[in-house]
Amino acid sequence: MTELTIAFTLNGERREVRVAAHETLLALLRDGLGAIEVKDGCGEGVCGTCTVLLDGEPVSSCLLLAVRAAGRQVTTVRGLAPVGSLSPLQEAFVAHGAAQCGFCTPGMLLTAHAFLQQHPRPTRDDIRRAISGNLCRCTGYAKIIDAIEAASAGAAPPSPSSAGPARRG
Amino acid sequence: MPAAPFDYHAPATVAEALATLNALGDDAKVLAGGQSLVPMLTLRLVRPAAVVDIHGLDELRGVRRDGDTLEIGALVRHRALELGEGPLGSCPLLQEAAGLIGNVRVRAMGTIGGSLAHADPAAEWPAVVRALDGVLVARGPGGERAIPAAEFFTGLLSTSLRPGELLAAVRLPLPAGRAGYAVEEFTRRAGDFAVVAAMAAVELDGGGRASRVRVAVAGAGPAPVRLAAVEKALAGVEPSEQAFRQAVADHKLEIEPDGDVHASADYRRHLTRVLTVRALVRAAARAAKGARA
Amino acid sequence: MAKSPARGGSVAVRPAEELRVVGRPIARHDARDKVQAATLYAADWQMPGMLHGVVLRSVYPSARIRRLDTARAAALPGVAAVLTARDVPHNTLWTDVPGQTSQVGALRARIQVLADRMVRYQGEPVALVAAETLEAAHAALEAIEVEYEPAAGVFDPEEALRPGAPRVHEEGNLLARWHVRCGDADAALERADAVVEHTYRCQFIDHAYLEPECGVAWVDADGVVTIRVATQVIEHFRDVAEVLGLPHNRVRVIGTYVGGGFGGKEDVTVEVFLGLLASRTRRPVRMIWSRQESLLARPKRHPFLLHYRTGASRDGTLVAQKVELLADSGAYAYLSALVLMYATVTAAGPYRIPNATIDARVVYTNNPPTSAMRGFGGMQMVLGYESQMDGLARRLELDPVAIRVRNALRKGDRLPVGQELETHVGVAEAAQRAWAALGPRRAPSAPARRAGRGLACNIQPYGRIVWLHDWASAWVGFEMDGTLVVRSGVPDVGGGQASSLCQIAAEVLGVAVERVAVHIGDSALTPLAGTTTATRQLYMSGNAVLQAAAGLRAQVLPVAAQMLETPLDRVTLRDGGAAGASGRRLEWAAVLKECARLGVSRSYLGVYHAPAGDPVDLDRGGGRIFPDYTFGAHAVEVEVDTETGAVAVVRHVACHDVGRAINPQSVEGQIQGGAVMGLGYGLMEEVVLDRGVNLSTNLASYLIPTSLDVPDVEPLLLESHEGKGPFGARGIGEPPIGPPAAAIANAVEDAIGVRITELPITPERVARALGLLGAPRTGP
């Protein structure tokens, strides 16, 4: 077994950790660094819930050995906006009902974010294709595409109050 | 589940990588993009004692066009091929095939060399390389070997790479005259492995007849197959949908499909015919439009 | 037999114009949390000293366990516990129609917690391990020595019924049967002008929620075994207590926000295993099932063999429906008898049928067990009855919409089981609206393609069987500053279960929805609300919250009236306070202070009792089974590639009478999500089994739709205002999954003239039906 010390940036913050070579980035993030915003849905790179951005590109963190993050910038959904605030894309998801159970949401947001960076004015079909690697079992995708479309148009969220009631659970 | 622990090596040069592989012997796996190997590790389908991560071998990332040969380093990612910048754009078949591979995440990490060395019968790159009569460049203890694609893919998930050898690059000859390419892939869902895929390359002579037709099929046997009889029948023929249909209907297809949960052997055979015709039609149309290598 | 006292019924409904919050597509509070990943799902919970639990599962579908030796495993470093059947205090888990306390005879079923002498399906749990690390746990799994002696098995329901078939259980393979009879179907079929007869088949499928099964358990400072788990049923604390031999009040289940349920987290998943391991080790234990494990071993949807004979007169009026159903329960009963009942009650479809005979059976096999999945038997029937309707339409040369409208049930009609429909029945309207919404026919997009359209209507119950005397409770209370708290045991599985309750409470008490905090899903701390299943929560918990909020309102209103010096009936509650006739206003904080001074309670516990009934004989013209039903119709337009057989759905309109949409955006989301799940069922999903060996154990081979595989489903909401839920709402969680597969089958026939009677409608099946593959043969 090999252990290595690696340094990388997580959501803009430098991290230095000791990892076993056989550990995946997903396991390091969730279990080692408490980044539970990255989900584990299949371990096969198919579902997309483990998506993180590696130097801005979406990758399956379940298929990446942690050591490969060395020297790279890793972004999770918590890197999309300062703590406590939402990016326009996140606001659009809330306003358009794009999150039901929410489990696909972090991966979906990162994928959409990276896509919109490259394609600021996509058609609906472009969006549909862009998220085709992220599975959702709850929404049927329509409202997710609505939200991404709205965000790309720079539209203000249509629905009134978005603060929502506080909840603990 | 967590992978079984292994010793990890990350050589900085090809020479170092080869020496490491040589020293480790059989029980070592080469890690490139990881999209095939890592799930096998975490599902514990393989438990190598060592993993040699070749990610640091920048020598294997080169892309070079030398006259009529395009050389692509093994570590070039699907994503780069999909974008087709620089010399990679000289073979449009690469862009079309790359766009069909997996999903955006697979394309960000996966490499052409990894895919070729893994030799999944349903994968796109082995069939593309077969269609274009590519040459696989291996480097090993004995030096460099240039292996024609026809000899490289030996069976299900098998290649003629020798122990201790690394796939370093693939060389694709580029046609001189008017050429057109097309991929017709049948999948159960977008981004899935092909059930069957047909890669077609059609070259036209000055009179608009097919000077050379090549078709390779993925998913219809343990390794990609060239439809030699169909190709021969179409040489010198005026390309038309009817001609393609006739050739496919009249000639034996050298495929040996297996049935599985995704498709029966019969259905794969049927798909091969349908997709071959469709690929040839599109490739011929592109060649006619003057698409140039 | 004494009649159960009538209770409940719908709570007073306000006219639509007066509603401020209900009926508006407000953003859900949990959506805000989820886009920031602030929601802590069950697998996100970590505790100091936490162990990792894993399950050893049988590799054979049918085998005796000759030897099971855990000594080597237990001795490995880092292993805290290895448990087998003999370590389980009471090794029986009862499925007692989850969450209920009343027994309902044949619906009670049992399963072993851990297999002792026999394993009956591939993946059946045999042993448990808890270890310091996941690696140590897996090492221990591999070190457990098991010797199996493979035994004969049976893998097909028809075979299971033949004499001499291997017995899965001692009592024989027939698990349950139901009959419904009304009129004389045989005689009516003899006389009918047209009879259409077909056999249909539908397949095993998996829930494939994105969040795998998981939870964390610990023993708290008071010795209460606490299990924080992704579940649709927090009442399983009782099951854990029974297995552990603990008093019920010493087990607590905390239900997290669930990453998808769909019935797959309705039965016990990790709860009992976690309870065992936490009790044994006295340390926190986390268990997360892998996707592959979940696909292998979790209960699936019931496959059915459906045989239909449907008769009509020349003008298309249905005269008879004769149905035989055979379902596969897999190796254990779970909820099979109940699923079968839903199928039996809905098998005739949403139509007036004077003569009907429905015979339904479910049998054991050594296939994976089958249990609850969205639609619960009712959805599988749609393929049968809607294919039949199209068959009759073709035979009689009638328009598919017209024949359905002619026969559609109406308020006041009776189902074959004898139940009178007391609320508005929107089938005819849904069929017309959905079909019309498709607009003019379009030309196919390529030469080899044929376009076609199909319609399918459906009936799906909401609310539980009335014999179960269902109830739900909720607590609503004011804090001194005028903010509101709702406490409900309701599990939230992503359908906005919690946020709907906030909307309702906010509506009744005139507070802004942002000023409502909701606490859900804790069996020790929140009033129990029953299961998030059976499309019952909006109906039941919605009414419970409505009742609690109304009760609270009735308590505090007199105080406000007195302070405002205004008659009671002139007080209005809005904008965070109370206003009198003169226009004078008071903030809630002021009113609540006065309540405190006067000793008037600022909270109210509502308990909603659904209309109850006694068990009836289904085949003696039974009577009332379910509180109510939701009706709808989907219309799809498809393109069939006539060379490959591939079917693409290019338009999908889904119309349902939802009674009242408490949150229209949530309702649309349920319809779109349910419809797409139905499309997956119709086109691509299948758990492929080879004599009990599961071949679909990874997500690469178990195919669920991606965004490119489905169109934007267009939801059409009808609001009849006559549902039994709060403000006239009807349940909508399950209904949308029913029609799509049948609509596609109908559309494919419209496109290429071939009737596919087996699901999923794969390209290969269509190619074969088109004669493209030579001689027909069975198999994949």
How many beta-strand elements of chain C? 30
**CATH arch. level architecture of the largest domain in chain A:** Roll
Known CATH architecture of the largest domain in chain C = 2-Layer Sandwich
- Quaternary state of the chains: heterotrimer
Q: What is the total domain count of chain C?
A: 3
CATH homologous superfamily heading of the largest domain in chain A: Beta-grasp domain
Report the major sheet of chain A: 5 strands, mixed
How many extended strands of chain A? 6
Give the distance, in angstroms, between the N- and C-terminal Cα atoms of chain C. 53 Å
Overall pLDDT of chain C: 93
- The value of Rg of chain C in angstroms is 27 Å
Q: How would you characterize the largest beta sheet of chain C? A: 7 strands, mixed
What do these coordinates show?
The complex is a heterotrimer of chains A (169), B (293) and C (780). Chain A contains 5 helices and 6 strands; from the N terminus they run ββαβββααααβ. With 169 residues, chain A is an alpha+beta fold. The N and C termini of chain A lie far apart (40 Å). Mean pLDDT of chain A is 92; it is low at 156-169. With 293 residues, chain B is α+β, with helices and mostly antiparallel strands. Chain B has 2 domains: 59-173, Uridine Diphospho-n-acetylenolpyruvylglucosamine Reductase, domain 3 (2-Layer Sandwich), CATH 3.30.465.10; 178-288, 2-Layer Sandwich (Enolase-like, domain 1), CATH 3.30.390. Chain B is 33% helix and 25% strand. In chain B, helix 9 packs across helix 10 (241-250) and helix 10 runs antiparallel to helix 11 (265-288). The radius of gyration of chain B is 19 Å and the shape is globular. Chain C folds into 3 domains: 16-39 and 471-609, 2-Layer Sandwich (Aldehyde Oxidoreductase, domain 4), CATH 3.30.365; 42-151 and 213-288, Aldehyde oxidase/xanthine dehydrogenase, a/b hammerhead (Aldehyde Oxidoreductase, domain 3), CATH 3.90.1170.50; 304-411 and 423-465 and 615-769, Aldehyde Oxidoreductase, domain 4 (2-Layer Sandwich), CATH 3.30.365. In chain C, the strands form 8 sheets. A 7-stranded mixed sheet of chain C has the order 3-7-1-14-11-12-13, sandwiched between helices. Chains in contact: A-B, A-C, B-C. At the A-C interface, helix 2, helix 3, helix 5 and strand 6 of A face helix 1, helix 13, strand 21 and helix 16 of C. Strand 6 (167-168) of chain A pairs parallel with strand 21 (516-520) of chain C, so a sheet runs across the interface.
